[in-house]
Amino acid sequence: MSLFDDDDDFVEDAVDAAVPSLGLVAPRQMDFCLGHSVQEKLFLDLHARGAMPHAMIFSGTQGIGKATMAFRLARFLFKYGKDNVADGGLFGDAAPAILPEVLDVAADDPVFRRVASGGHADLLYVERAYDEKKGRSKAALDVESVRKIEQFLRKTASEGGWRVVIVDDADTMNRSAQNAILKILEEPPANVLMILIAHRAGRLIPTIHSRCRNVDFQSLDAPVMEELFARQGVLFRPEELDTVLTFAGGSIGRALQFVEEGGLDTLSLIFSTLAYMPEWDRVKVFELGEMLSPPSQDKAYRMFADLLQWVFRQVLFAKARGAQNLPPCLARSGLEGFLRKSSLEKLVGICDSLKNHFESVEFSNLDRRDAVRGAFVVLSQ
Question: How many domains would you assign to the chain?
């Protein structure tokens, strides 16, 4: 484990779905995209110059708006891109009479409505298949999903302009799927834009990188996050907002999932248990394991596992920075004394052991009562 790893190990498939009770709008239906004005200006410039590449990698932390921007760009090309399409070539010389200054397409525009409903004939969205048994997306984007792209590209553009392929979670593709994508990139059809959304772009093979333009997306800053919370109607007390922002690390998707799945309550539960560290209240630990063990508590268990690891990563990061105090959001954890007396080596070991413990539980499908108790055994070592 690197001392400065980010928190992207937080359930990779957790931030790719809408949060129903918060009314979170799916990326294809979003009529705005905050925090990425630099990228938007780049796309407008490429369009104005007739220099739109045939493939791009949208790289950056999960849940920051990469998919939202991909659909936003697709709508723009469907609406205005015909002006820059030349017969028989990838790029045209003609420029539109009036160059748009933003990528906006009005929500009542037919193009917007077709993209939002998934009914635009020139748009293909490829994502990981859903595992009905586990109730969540599969871990990897398989080759069968990628082959849908080949079938789609055999067709001609229904509206005579651009065709757009958006591949979400592209970094989860296995080698066969990546090779299938590579074949398409090696001989790109005219007037096609392929957008690969990658949360960990380094997992894509170098030959894919060499055939795509990389567009890096930065995590969202606090003011943007707060505006997005306001637009979702999510309100916090000041101390809660600090906790959510620290945990989210600039990812609105991660923040909203944290709120939806009761992250604040789970964190309080963890803090109350850690108050006894290292002499655990065995009854309390046992009750916690019982509470999180039923299948109906799957999300609660995963939130517990992720948050417990996150808490100790924050302790580790504080130690690595030479800080004597924890971030304000961990003030109630009772871990400041533990921070001061623990060596950096010990904290690295704890973080590694917790990560390995929960991965082993997941891989071996072990009883979650034992998983919870085992985590506190790790912390006692």
Answer: 2
Closest among 360, 345, 353, 347 to 378, alpha carbons compared: 353
pLDDT in tens, 186-240: 998 999 999 999 999 999 999 999 999 999 999 999 999 999 999 888 888 888 8
Query: Contact 257/19 with Cβ under 8 angstroms?
Result: yes
User: Each residue of 160-192: b (16+ CB within 10 Å) or e?
Assistant: ebbbbbbbbbbbbbeeebbebbeebbeebeebb
Weakest-pLDDT range from 13-27, 69-83, 192-206, 328-342: 13-27
Do 185 and 297 lie in one domain? The reply is no
| Domain range for 290 | 261-380
Higher per-residue pLDDT: 125 or 159:
125
Closest CA to 86 of 78, 95, 74, 77: 95
- Considering the domain architecture, whether residues 74 and 165 belong to the same structural domain is answered as yes
Last residue of a domain, one of 216, 251, 280: 216
Is residue 252 in a domain? no
- In angstroms, the CA 334 to CA 338 distance is 8
The pair of structure tokens assigned to 201 is 């772009």
Please report, for the domain that includes residue 46, its CATH number. Answer: 3.40.50.300
Which pair of structure tokens corresponds to residue 342? 């623990």
DSSP 73-97: HHHHHHHHGGGG--TTSSS-S---S
Same domain for 299 and 362:
yes
Same domain, 265 and 208: no
* 69 plus 145 within the same structural domain: yes
Q: For residue 122, which of 89, 177, 85 has the smallest C-alpha distance? A: 85
**193 and 280: one domain?**
no
Residue 164 · residue 124 · CB < 8 Å: yes
Contact call for residues 132 and 124 (beta carbons, < 8 A): no
DSSP state for residue 162 in the 8-state scheme = -
Question: Is 227 a domain residue?
Answer: no
CA dihedral 137, 143, 149, 152 (to 10 degrees): -100
CA–centroid distance for 147 within its chain: 24
The mean pLDDT value for 86-114 works out to 72
pTM of the shown model: 0.84
Output 332 or 344, whichever has higher pLDDT. Answer: 344
Closest of 224, 179, 217 to residue 198, by C-alpha: 217
